[in-house]
Write a structure and sequence with these properties.
9-stranded antiparallel sheet, single chain, alpha+beta, Immunoglobulin-like, globular, 316 residues, 20% helix
């Protein structure tokens, strides 16, 4: 059990004033038995009314708009959360595909999370599976072997990929960051018809050598028969534990994007992301990132274009 104080600021600055900014945020901690929200304060530019609802995947979503001209949009989250992860049931799991298939047949929600994406390199995914799957492993073991393969054969490297990077490109580069490894693991597990979903959140290891500290992180929830959703982090080749704080889930990155929206105007925008993690021992980890986003030109309300307003561009 651990308690973390997470301060997260997402700031967009526009060269020229923009208007009619409409936004969705998924920066609320995911409701589950594994984590308890002790306090959460949200501060947004101009203090708009935030309409809160649950989306299809069970995420708490905030929707707001800012109609008046503005050159900055700041979403600030101050969160105190306690993680309570218990891996004892998972450690003893030996269930196989026969039980999994029965559970999937009885749930459309699970079934829709078993279909892999259509990619050009699917044959390569099959070869990856053939390298460690012998037909006799449990679901837990297949998930672990898939994560281990990514950890051992792909290099953790910042700056060479972005949110548009495809699985085909990741397989060529054999390099990337957490969002890339999460998407690749999803493809491998779904090829085995194991239900799985993308997870966005934070990793708070307090100098324990885990990759991704200090920025938003991404991993995978995989369905283990008899237990349910279990988090697996291929970036660190580890089951999700008390160092992970979950924000949102979905079929892929786009379903769990922390901030996204549209606006009316013609202006280049710059994105700044600050994340601070405070630990119980008094140690604090801070990191600030800047990303240059493409210029967006919008001539009318009907021509609103989606901007890449998502801090997962900085997921590590």
């Amino acid at each position: 059990m651990s308690v973390f104080k997470i301060h997260h600021i997402t700031k967009y600055h526009y060269e020229q004033p923009i208007v009619e900014s409409v936004n969705e945020i998924r920066i609320f901690p995911y409701q589950s038995a594994d984590q308890e929200v002790l306090q959460h304060d949200l501060i947004i530019t101009n203090h708009p009314n935030v309409h809160v609802f649950k989306d299809y995947w069970g995420n708490k979503v905030g929707f707001f708009n800012i109609l008046e001209p503005h050159q900055d949009l700041i979403v600030e989250s101050k969160l105190t959360v306690r993680t309570i992860v218990d891996l004892s049931s998972l450690e003893m799991s030996t269930t196989g595909f026969d039980i999994l298939n029965k559970e999937v047949e009885e749930s459309f929600h699970l079934l829709e999370l078993t279909k892999p994406d259509d990619i050009e390199s699917q044959e390569q995914i099959q070869k990856i599976l053939e390298s460690f799957f012998n037909g006799g492993q449990s679901i837990k073991e297949v998930i672990e072997k898939s994560s281990q393969y990514i950890f051992e054969n792909f290099t953790y490297t910042k700056g060479i990929t972005n949110i548009e990077t495809t699985i085909d490109e990741i397989l060529v580069h054999k390099k990337g960051v957490c969002q890339d490894f999460a998407h690749l693991l999803l493809q491998i597990l779904r090829t085995m018809h194991i239900p799985c979903r993308y997870v966005s959140g934070y990793i708070c290891p307090n100098k324990n050598g885990m990759r991704g500290e200090g920025a938003t992180h991404a991993w995978v929830d995989a369905w283990v028969p008899g237990i349910g959703w279990c988090g697996i982090d291929p970036t660190n080749n580890a089951w999700v534990n008390n160092h992970h704080v979950k924000l949102a889930v979905g079929r892929n990155f786009y379903d769990s994007s922390v901030v996204k929206g549209t606006y009316k105007g013609s202006s280049r925008q710059d994105l700044f992301v600050f994340v601070s993690v405070g630990y119980e021992d008094g140690h604090t980890f801070e990191e600030t990132n800047q990303v240059l986003l493409d210029k967006q030109e919008v001539n009318s309300v009907n021509d609103l274009k989606k901007t890449a307003m998502s801090i997962q561009q900085q997921q590590q």
